[in-house]
Amino acid sequence: MNDSPDPLARLLADLAGEAGIVPFWRVMELALYHPEHGYYMTGRQRIGREGDFVTAPELTSLFGELLTLQCIEVWELLGRPHPFAVIEMGGGSGRLAADFLATARRFVDFFQALAYRVVEISPDFRARQQELVHALGCGAEKISWSATLPDHIEAGVILGNEFLDALPVHWVEMTPHGLMEVGLVPDGQGTFTTLLVAPQSPLAPDYFDNLGIDLATGYRTEVGLAAARWMEGAGRALGRGVVLMIDYGWPASEYYAPHRTHGTLAGHRGHERVDDPLRFLGTMDLTAHVDFSAMARAGTSAGLTPLGFTTQAWFLMGLGILERLQRLTGRLAPEQAESLRQAVMRLILPDAMGERFKVLAMGKGVLQGALSGFRLNDQWPRL
To answer: For 94, phi and psi rounded to 5 degrees?
Structure first.
């Protein structure tokens, strides 16, 4: 049984048409991004204590501060170009943009060169981002918004934090007859049955064979073709600079490990994980982990070169989060210091976000090994 709102359920039934089937990737796309009924598009609290999930920028401004420092380093490595674009994909609550601009203002030359853009398709999110940035007075003159990635970025950083995981995925299962794709048969009232169908283009039936990955019969997982296409597009758009993506996921060898027989597709609602991705369609977040090996291949095909891959913990420690924490806690009242310490530990501890989240950097005009975020533990060979 599915608790989707009636308008979305009826829409899916109409899309099924005579065939009676809607491929899951299309269902996920509509459930998240339909202009009227999509989860990200409607006016509701999604991020924070009163929402469905919390992202790193909401925990502490140190996350945004350190990402700013990493971008300043890229700017220096490229010869201090003016203008220097920082493109944030999917700005969420606007907290990352606000912290980035507040930090950048302390570096006068960088701030003068900075052109910050949020690529955001959700009118609700965009309004919230604009309200926060303007309310904090942290450099609103330096930020703009658009619905799509620019066709060309002369020099800059394309940045995404928990962006790739929310792009639609193909839900697949290995059968005795080969790879099949999960389709949904809607009845228009919110009830769905699933049906395995032959892979639909652009998903190739031999996708896993070409990667040398052998899935057991009955193994169900996801293929993130939309994320790979986005990575290729980012690589083509970037003239010089870095594509820097932070998200939860693994290299392909771990993503498609023999024990992970049910994949990673899940919903998030009221800070609870919903294992059935077909429940609450349109009213819950719906995500899949990121195959970072696929992202690396896609980036390479678009002319990007490897710059680093590591866990969020090692990345933030490479940028000096522990040193920054030590300096700040010495100036704060005991309760404030403890709150900050707990937030930082949540970002870096292995059983919290530290190991679960990974950081991938690829670029043009920057040498591998040059970025401080990867100086302590670059794990690129895992990809």
So the answer is: 95, -5
The DSSP bridge partners found for residue 304 are none
Q: Whole-angstrom distance between the N-terminal and C-terminal Cα of the chain?
A: 39
The SS3 assignment for 310 reads: strand
39 three-class SS: coil
Alpha carbon distances (Å) from 341 to 279, 349, 364? 36, 11, 36
Task: Report the predicted TM-score, pTM, of the whole model to 2 decimal places.
Answer: 0.94
Amino acid at 337: A
DSSP labels for 73-120? HHHHHTT--SSEEEEEES-TTSHHHHHHHHHHTTSHHHHHHEEEEEE-
Interval 152-174: pLDDT, tens: 999 999 999 999 999 999 999 99
Given pLDDT bands bounded at 50, 70 and 90, which one contains residue 186? confident
- Region 17-35: what's the mean pLDDT? 88
Q: Tell me the sheet residues that pair with 281.
A: none
Number of other CB atoms surrounding residue 115 within 10 Å? 15
Distance, CA of 241 to CA of 131 (rounded, Å):
29
- Residue 142 predicted with pLDDT over 70: yes
For the record, the structure tokens of 10 come out as 């009826």
- With tokens 């507040």, the residue in question is 102
Q: What's the CA gap between 233 and 151, in Å, rounded?
A: 9
278-292, pLDDT tens digit by residue? 888 878 889 999 999
Local structure of residue 126 (DSSP, 8 states): H
**Ordered alpha helix ranges (H), the chain:** 6-16, 24-33, 56-59, 61-77, 95-104, 108-113, 123-136, 207-211, 225-237, 252-255, 292-301, 312-318, 321-329, 334-348
